Amino acid sequence: MDRARAARLLTLAAGLGLLAAAGETELKARLHPARWLAASADAPRALSTSFTECLAPPADAKEAYLVELGRSAFRSPTLLGGQAARAGLACESCHQAGRRNPDFYFPGLSGAPGTADVTSALFSSHRDDGIDNPKPIPDLSSPKSALKVSQDPARGDLERFIHGLVTEEFDGAEPPPAVLTGLAAYVRALGPGACPAQARASVRAADFVDEARRSVRAAQAALTHGDSSAALLMIDGARWRLGLINERYDDPGSADARAALKAADLDLLAAQDAIRAGDKGAEARLSLLLARSEAWAPILAREEKRSLFDPGRLEAEARGR
Description:
The structure is a single chain. With 321 residues, the chain is mainly alpha-helical. The chain has helices spanning 3-14, 22-30, 43-48, 61-74, 77-80, 82-87, 91-94, 157-169, 177-188, 205-224, 228-246, 255-276, 282-303, 311-318, and strands at 49-51, 115-116, 135-136, 200-202.
């Protein structure tokens, strides 16, 4: 192993010691997306805004279903498994909204902000090359000609690349076939022609709720297609999104919001148990959860001002005030 690689791996022990201020250290301990922000990043801005998504939804119903499967899996750490899942890393951690993350910094994996060593032993037992060689994280919404992997569906290069990324680069489990196809479909549906005029937008609790709902609907669609494995992964994605909401509602006055999120998570867990047991009523459970979300989502909106979705509170926390 070269000296640069060894030195970078030693930073894992330092972990949060790389941060610029005590307030940012506190945020990194509480919010998963804050844990891989570079010390040079503007934490309040990075946590209160996000790139907008450059997704062109397919008109074909089958393709649209696959894109939704891939989109949800892209945002779920369960897809990658192993150390990445335990750390809370998903594809979107590096490729925010299917684009890139210039503030990404993971000790032992990154060099400059926005880079990652994809041949590191940190996450993989297959691809470690013993060399410190972090590379810039590509923008998946760039023109197709700028991306190194062909996205021609007839060639299948993208499917093979994603499969290797999940099972070798991150040591993840074999993804359900429809999910692998969906991940490729999702990446193919990204492109500069679909980018909104506004490059970044505010992050709100309602956005996270909508993401959770999309994952639940993708799970329902997977069940309709008789694909319980894909449905379970979609529900994992929904549960992860609810967890990301919950960690921002840390104020003592947000007990109602946390109680609502806990109840929703228990409903999702029950739906997963039903799917594993072969219970045909699992899809109805998911429909009930979606209906119930119409009642608890306004609670989140009501209490959002005191949560860590609020830019002012994020600013104060980051500065240690």
